[in-house]
């Protein structure tokens, strides 16, 4: 009888702990209109560093306790912008991001250790691991997530004017890495109200 009582006590404790963990989880949706992505490319020679914007399509974040436990962000690659129309069109064509075939790119968080986020980036149909520093702070009832990722475009099949694949490029050479700076607002998901039963 004592053994049965102990087993029941353990079961109740585990159930309470599980319920408590679920209660601490909170979901957030990323607000694309209140978020900003800025990309910067770099020439191998000189100071040329074109900069433009990119729009988030959607995303979500889950926080368990005080820790981000999961996150997914989808970027609208068709929204790549630059003040130079010719360069903008070039970035959207097959030589770079081929947005007609690959209209979105996705980052899925795998772990967050201190201020380092590690996850899987899918770009131009290729998935590779990436890591970068982030800062997360409260913003009203939501979360403000900021950081800057350096991405090696050649890992995703984007080899245009890369000295890793082409020789004698001179001042036309472009660095393999480009940066993606982000300032993202995630707002808490408001549970839908249940309709009153008749």
TrEMBL record:
InterPro entries, alphabetized: Lipid/polyisoprenoid-bd_YceI (IPR007372), TTHA0802/YceI-like_sf (IPR036761)
Keywords, alphabetical: Signal
The keyword Signal is annotated on this UniProt entry: yes
Domain annotation Lipid/polyisoprenoid-binding YceI-like: ranges: 27-187
Signal sequence, renumbered to the chain: 1-23
PANTHER family in the record: PROTEIN YCEI
Name of the protein this chain belongs to: Lipid/polyisoprenoid-binding YceI-like domain-containing protein
Organism name: Spirosoma radiotolerans
């Amino acid at each position: 009888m004592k053994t049965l009582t102990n087993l029941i006590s353990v079961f109740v404790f585990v159930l309470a702990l599980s319920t408590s963990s679920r209660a601490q989880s909170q979901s957030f949706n990323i607000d694309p209109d209140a978020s900003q992505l800025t990309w910067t490319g770099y020439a191998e020679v000189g100071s040329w560093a074109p900069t433009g914007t990119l729009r988030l399509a959607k995303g979500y974040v889950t926080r368990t306790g005080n820790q981000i436990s999961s996150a997914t962000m989808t970027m609208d690659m068709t929204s790549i912008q630059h003040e130079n129309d010719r360069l903008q069109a070039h970035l959207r064509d097959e030589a770079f991001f081929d947005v007609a075939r690959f209209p979105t790119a996705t980052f899925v968080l795998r772990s967050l250790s201190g201020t380092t986020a590690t996850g899987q980036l899918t770009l131009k149909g290729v998935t590779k691991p990436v890591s970068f520093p982030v800062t997360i702070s409260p913003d009203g009832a939501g979360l403000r997530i900021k950081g800057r990722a350096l991405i090696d475009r050649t890992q995703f099949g984007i080899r245009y004017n890369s000295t890793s694949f082409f020789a004698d490029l001179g001042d036309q050479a472009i660095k393999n890495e480009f940066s993606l700076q982000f300032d993202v607002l995630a707002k808490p998901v408001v549970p839908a109200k249940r309709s009153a039963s008749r």
